[in-house]
Specification:
The structure is a homotetramer.
Chain A: E1 5-10, H1 16-25, E2 29-35, H2 39-46, E3 53-55, H3 58-63, E4 69-72, H4 79-88, E5 92-96, H5 103-116, E6 120-123, H6 130-140, E7 147-157, H7 166-181, E8 188-196, E9 206-213, E10 218-224, E11 226-238, E12 242-246, E13 254-263, H8 275-278, E14 279-288, H9 296-310, H10 318-336, E15 342-343
Parallel strand pairs in A: 1-2, 1-4, 2-3, 4-5, 5-6, 7-10
Antiparallel strand pairs in A: 7-11, 8-9, 8-15, 9-10, 11-12, 12-13, 13-14
């Protein structure tokens, strides 16, 4: 076994403790520091029995030669300076989603990491759930057939955030999943967003994103901070099978339906009038595959180690974080313009 | 007890048998005829033990002086001529949703009925479910507070129709419910629609409607013919309580959550920076009220009798059918224009 | 097509209307009479548009030469005289469950039908649901492996009956299903029953039946009139697969789990101490087969026609009704004796 | 704040890590030692960043004057010697359920703790869930009315244990909950057990316990290692309300139904024949109270601290552990005797 990678976690707020726990649990890493402006908070996160060092001084962390990598879980607005400092200190960087506060800032990070040959990874945690890994496999291998629609609902009573609306808070999950599971040939080409601020919070608390995909399919995302019922369900409709992922049903998270609508191919079609009899139902079985119950963060941490060690891009590398930012930014523009469909222009960095 | 109203059902296809059964079961009506171009089909619907008369000739029905009212369950494209003929013959008219194939046709029906002082009612069946009646009561009485959002999902494997897309097939249910439960002061003012035709059926099989309401709230409808899982869930988010109606959960169709997000009123707010601490959760109880399990069609039939007898408009009268048609038509235009938000202009007939 | 079998339904109470509707819907039968001591009730059941004859006089029905068969849905206490009269009049007989009020009465019916070569069938409706037909097929074909346990829960707010306790009211369903799905080689050999009369109704309102099966497996039935939640779930645990039938989940009534516990065969076992490592999990997929949604009563009616026409015993013939009665009677004895395990003695008539 | 209580956890197997985590998280305790015969296993449990001491030598732990209390999570067969040694060393003792391997052994522990004036507590974790605490409150305060029945199902694919059957493995949860929620005046008076060993494991893998309560009510427990579906549902039927606890439904763990069956009081009853009309339904609302989501073990740890500090018995003290053992032992006897109802004799130590 090789020497573990020295790692520091920056940020001891909501997400930091999860990173601390998982890096401590991974033999590939050795956690050196937990860094937070509020040192007491960092101490509380580690608890009273820990040998991990605590500091409020990022420079102290970055100056430590035993630290080869950092994991940043600070507010999005600080991702650029913190990550840039780390990259410039020669450290590999993992950033909590979203990659940065704007597309432009995200691009700076990607370019800096490229320039220095360092790993830049975005912690799109959901991509590493056993369910999403399976969806990716089924969709990219063609087992579901061609994608027709993807519908994602992520609603709950959520903390109304000071800086960001519900789109920037929750949709990164769905957008990163979409980016992760789509076959390479299929890409989002436009997005429209509708939202409402029912409670006078000054920002959208309920929002709907509609994405046009390059193959003519549609993806739709419902994010909502005001729902007393919690729903996290994604339907992936394919030409062969349709998959339903219910993240709140541990005994049956993924269900694959061999049911659907069959349409005769165009050349078989006589005339328009007979169309209705050429559409028929398949009423097939449903299979709920056995999935492992591995914690997604553990798999994400492994992937970070793999990317650092191999020098290859992580599955959710900086570029994937950038693609998500581009859509978020376009969605914000659409929201401001009352729902206009905004074209995406992925060309620039891909 | 007064003499029952003589009624004829026109159309023995998908919906006609339900009307036949419910008019037969109602003491307020006496079913005289079942009329269908396919007499054999009409006979099959009645079964081998019935005393009800069958005919393919609408004129024969309309000429029968014992028939005071008709119920029309023919394809939408025929609603205008059939209903017009019935009104001109002096019969009260109930029409299956949608009221007509176009807003213009619907308007002709409303005007004709007005002119003749006859009842024109639209069979918006869902409005007569115990659940929707309760939602109407709770929302209009203010028990839920002001409406923030309404989210409706109606998806299933559905028959891909020859003439109409999924919006015209399924959204009339949700739009009529919305029309029914909204307080009088709150009205839809604009609609945008996005859709996709994944299977090459020549019309949208998946669609999303977003409605702006006059109080700033949002209503959203997801209709889908391609989903192997059946979902019929509506969330009604109010400022005081949020209600979830799950039509597929007979043991708990309606759940009212006294949970939510509290925002301090603007005058209490110091500065923007403290906003996040001024939003707090209420984590209250949920109540699932005991609802009767009465068949909606039975209640609808009673309402038809009440409207005929009293001369008052039915709860779902021709005008409500017209309001639904206006939104459907605007949604179609939005769909054709790639999702533009289309203003509604309710003024003309209300 | 052959001439339909003339049939009369006797009893227009709770169950009779379902029989009326299904015999009317079947081309194999021609419904001649609905007979009930309360003629008005019978008229209400048929409704105001029916050509079927009504009478309070069973003799009039039995004297009608166009009646070849009867279906009896009167209280259990009257099954013996009504069915006996019908058999003696040369009519085939279908009896609502339970076959009779006692085992001895049921035996008289079986013997009378045997003597006269007439069909005697028990309306064990649940046996004809698509789910139970599938369970029977899977269990008898060996696809589930050897039966280890069967656990059935049938609870709801139920009408507290005047004459019978919850065991006689509800357990016939579960016992007839058990009788129906078991492989021929496996039979119940003993039963114990525990119950309670929480509400002072004078009879058990909650009861648990435990059956020992001839292969060492266990079957357990929970019936309950006092539960505000409705549960109808049966788990069939086999050595290869385990099946769960949730009758209240229309989208997934039957689920077959390829999960379980593997035990090494005895000869492979070293010593007792290593047993714990010889038991391992299989964490396989779950399959929910597509089932038709045919009404069970329709299939039951078809089976009645098949039995009458072919002269072969119905799948749920008098003997199966008798086996259920034997267990019910033994359960009552066990209940009275505080839960003693009562041996069953199936030999006498099988 | 007072000085934290020095604590040692003994046993680093399945349950030990949970105790370690919760004692570390509690300000009332200071974790001094983790003791396990397998020191490497103990080290793995603590992880590579811990300051807690590890040892295989119980005597070393008991000799440490900074240790005032121990928590024992070793196999049940070792509870007696380990706990006895700890008590004799003057330490307070918390024991994982069951209290001991036999009633006799459990009694020795209770007596030893009594003699020395030390706290002896049994870790009946489920009793400290917010749901069970609420059930206790509702049942003991009379809000549910008098108890009619309690039905508990705890089934899942479970590890077939080497030493114990499914009754000893799982039923302690249900029996301790029963003991915890019952009003003082209502006690189990007899128990019968039925079981089966479908897979040839040499011990019952499926079992049903029926308990007679002193007020005539019935309690029933289904425990099962062979079920591929996981169910953890308890129904508490009272004369006023019925409560359903579904531990696997985080959004609605407890539901209280104001529905039920009303029976007229005996004096109002005319004669037996009219009984059926004197039983009527109440079809009231259901309320799902908002429960906190506090980890049960955290509350249990607090209660241990409270008991030690105050010198008062813990809510789940040694005596409650003993009452559970008495029932387990009687259930085993019943199982061996084929289901005989075994009288309980609570008198001896209560």
């Amino acid at each position: 076994m090789t020497t573990p990678i020295g790692i520091a976690v920056v940020g001891a707020g909501y997400w930091g403790p999860n990173l601390v726990r998982n890096f401590q649990g991974s033999p590939a890493f050795r956690l050196r520091w937990l860094c937070d402006l509020d040192v007491e908070r960092a101490r509380r996160v580690l608890g009273g029995y820990s040998t991990v060092q605590v500091t409020a001084d990022l420079d102290e962390v970055l100056a430590d030669p035993e630290v080869q990598a950092v994991a940043i879980a600070t507010p999005a607005g600080t991702h650029l300076p913190v990550a840039l400092a780390a990259l410039r200190a020669g450290k590999h960087v993992l950033v909590e989603k979203p990659l940065a506060a704007t597309y432009e800032e995200g691009r700076q990070l990607v370019e800096e990491a490229d320039r220095r040959g360092l790993t830049l990874m975005c912690d799109h945690t959901y991509c590493y759930t056993p369910a999403v890994l399976r969806i990716r496999e089924l969709l990219r291998s063609g087992e579901l057939g061609e994608l027709h629609f993807l519908d994602s609902v992520r609603i709950n009573l959520g903390l109304v955030q000071r800086d960001i609306d519900v789109v920037w808070d929750l949709a990164p999950h769905d957008l990163s999943i979409l980016d992760f599971v789509l076959p390479d040939a299929v890409r989002p080409v436009a997005v429209a967003a509708h939202g409402a601020d029912g409670i006078g919070a000054g920002r959208a608390c309920v929002a709907y994103l509609t994405l046009e995909l390059s193959n003519g399919a549609i993806a739709h995302i419902h994010v909502n901070w005001l729902s007393p019922v919690k729903i996290r369900t994604t339907i992936v409709g394919g030409s062969k099978r349709t998959l339903v992922w219910d993240d709140l049903n541990p005994s049956q998270r993924v269900a694959i339906y061999d049911r659907g609508v069959d349409v005769a191919s165009p050349e078989e079609l006589g005339d328009e009038q007979r169309r209705d009899i050429l559409v028929s139902y398949r009423s097939g079985d449903m299979v709920a595959p056995a999935l492992t119950e591995r914690e997604a963060l553990r798999t994400m941490v492994d992937e970070y180690a793999r990317a650092i060690t191999s020098g290859e891009p992580a599955l959710t590398d900086g570029r994937s974080g950038l693609r998500v930012l581009e859509i978020l930014q376009a969605a914000s523009r659409s929201l401001a313009e009352g729902g206009t469909m905004i074209k995406l222009d992925e060309g620039h960095m891909a």
